[in-house]
Design goal:
With 590 residues, the chain is of the alpha+beta class. It contains 19 helices and 23 strands. The strands form seven sheets. Strands 2, 3, 4, 5, 10, 18 and 19 form a seven-stranded mixed sheet that branches. It is elongated, with a radius of gyration of 34 Å.
């Protein structure tokens, strides 16, 4: 009896255990099915979809960039990616050798051209010898073409002419896929304005710097897509599903840049930088009445197609908007504008320059160490007198002077449609000491970009209005044109103050440091600026930024800034930036 009872208990335990295991497995299956069908439904649906649908991207054309006079500065042209279908190739070694020879010939032509140039380029320094390239291509192609893949990219992009030459040979299993490639018809012209295009994080074309970077969203458009239903072997089904989303082309952009003026400016700037032994330079030409940028150049420059090159002379940033510097005496007109606008001084207001002055235990002096005794505001600008500027700045006061500087656009971005603009620095006036106020009055201890300086001068030229610099004139999309209006930001000084300042700037040129290079038949308003460069906390007397800013006082059709970074033939703007400005002005007038 007891044995039977034990057997029954054991049997029941086994049954319960089996039942528990069975139920656990069922619960696991149910949970897994719930996870697949409910929780991860979208994931598995996509996996299933991808198993019987193929997807192909249809590349779109990037919008073109044109000069104001209708010349293309950046376009998209057709190039071709070489690909292979290894399973269609009977002799991969033979095809690899022949194809490597074709690419070798293309590469060698380019290499030979560069080696014949008098000045060896940065591009040549980074190129392998054609023989090394041939061996590398042969090995790579052999590996790719011997694989079991259905399709493989060979990583070589060639021109339509090169594609036709290779295609004539009829290599089995070799094909060509059209890919849009960015092309700059004018080479290095306006490269810092344009920027360049490279691959982004997802492999798609991405604009960097300049217009290409700042307006990438407008230029890039939207790629299309083709989806086709395929069989188990990955071959499209003849009567299967088919979906196509057409690509949307990027918007074309017209700049305010005048191609001819840009060419003249770049040519003269290069010669000027070399003649005066400068590290680099910037020139900007604007219409002071509209804020339009007519030309913007930096030197050294670069080729936007060869953006990948490295080296000391390859500067991709647009230093006209991204590099700040202490502008020096070109700030004095804004100090005087504030004083005149506040009725603190008139052009004839006298002061005495009888020697160096001490502020906050620091001594300031004039740029040339000379002291002329009794002076007035007219002579202050003509002689670029630091003692007088500091005196005027203290009449205005730190708070008011800071407010006027900021009203003229210093310490904030101008808002130009270019990537990488800097704000410059105007420190909080609450923290200014007497020496800070004195030095700020003649352009030291503050920083600005060349564009900020020129745009502030435009406000004096156009009646007292600060304008937003404009470099894009219109967009064109699907035949529809969208014009970009000029924009006034604010009125800074009164019309009376503006008239006085125009007269003062005319006299600053006619009787100032620039008089030996002035154009005889034209009335010019402007100001020089020779700013020593701080090194290890002290100003180096042998290193300067030389600047001249001015405009034709009669027509006011254009304003221009010339800035030379560390000229070695002379540290003074009157002997470097001024003659370059005058030469450019003569060219532009003609």
């Amino acid at each position: 009896m007891k044995k039977n009872l034990k057997r029954n208990i054991a049997r029941n335990l086994r049954i319960d255990l089996i039942t528990a295991v069975f139920l656990s497995v069922c619960i696991l299956f149910i949970f897994k099915l719930f996870t697949i069908q409910i929780l991860d439904h979208a994931k598995y649906k996509a996996m299933a979809y991808n198993q019987y649908w193929s997807s192909q991207v249809i590349p779109t054309n990037r919008g073109a960039i044109y000069s104001s006079d209708g010349y293309p500065l950046a376009e998209t042209q057709a190039s071709y990616l070489i690909y292979a279908e290894p399973k269609k190739i009977n002799d991969p070694i033979d095809i690899s050798d022949k194809l490597a020879q074709e690419i070798f010939e293309i590469y060698k032509k380019k290499y030979d051209v560069l080696t014949k140039e008098t000045t060896k380029s940065e591009e040549l320094k980074q190129m392998e010898t054609p023989e090394k390239v041939y061996e590398s291509l042969k090995e790579k192609f052999s590996s790719y073409l011997s694989s079991n893949l259905m399709w493989v990219s060979l990583g070589q992009i060639i021109t339509p002419v090169e594609k036709d030459e290779i295609e004539k040979k009829g290599y089995e299993g070799i094909g060509f896929q059209e890919v849009p490639t960015r092309y700059y018809p004018e080479g290095t012209l306006a490269s810092h304005v344009l920027g360049f295009v490279a691959s982004g994080e997802n492999g798609e074309p991405q604009g960097y710097y300049g217009i290409e970077g700042s307006l990438n969203g407008d230029l890039k458009g939207k790629s299309g897509r083709i989806r086709e239903e395929k069989d188990a072997l990955g071959i499209p089904i003849l009567f299967g599903g088919y979906q196509k989303v057409a690509p949307i082309e990027g918007r074309d952009i017209y700049l305010t840049i005048n191609r001819s003026v840009q060419y003249i400016v770049e040519k003269r700037l290069k010669v000027g930088v070399e003649n005066y032994g400068a590290v680099g330079g910037n020139v900007i030409v604007m219409d002071p009445n509209t804020g339009e940028i007519i030309a913007m150049a930096n030197y050294p420059t670069y080729d936007p197609v060869k953006f990948y090159l490295s080296g000391e002379k390859i500067q991709r940033k647009n230093l006209s908007i991204s590099e700040t510097y202490e502008p020096g005496s070109v700030i004095k007109p804004f100090t005087i504008s504030a004083a005149i606008d506040l009725k603190k001084v008139t052009p004839e207001t006298p002061y005495v320059d009888d020697g160096p002055k001490k502020y906050s235990d620091y001594v300031i002096d004039n740029w040339d160490g000379k002291h002329l005794g009794k002076m007035n505001i007219i002579l202050l600008l003509q002689k670029s007198n630091n003692i007088g500027a500091a005196w005027v700045g203290h009449l205005v006061g730190a708070q008011k002077l800071s407010e006027y500087f900021k009203a003229f656009g210093f310490g904030e971005k101008t808002g130009i449609d270019l990537e990488g603009e800097d704000t410059g620095v105007i420190r909080d006036s609450k923290n200014w000491t007497d020496i800070d106020l004195a030095t700020a009055s003649f352009g030291q201890g503050i920083s600005a970009t060349p564009l900020q300086v020129l745009n502030a001068f435009n406000a004096i030229a156009n009646g007292g209005y600060l304008l937003k610099p404009k470099i894009v004139s219109k967009f064109i999309e699907n035949g529809k044109t969208t014009n970009i209006p000029d924009k006034r930001l604010r009125k800074i000084i009164s019309s009376e103050t503006d008239k006085i300042m125009n007269d003062l700037l005319i006299q600053a040129v006619s009787g100032g440091e620039s008089k030996y290079f002035n154009l005889k038949n034209y009335v010019i308003a402007g100001k020089t600026g020779t700013a020593q460069i701080p090194v290890d906390g002290k100003y180096d007397a042998n290193k300067s930024n030389a600047t001249f800013v001015g405009y034709l006082a009669g027509t006011k059709k254009f304003s221009m800034i010339v800035r030379l970074n560390r000229p070695s033939t002379s540290v003074y703007a009157a002997e470097t930036a001024v003659p370059l400005w005058m030469q450019l002005t003569e060219d532009l007038i003609k």
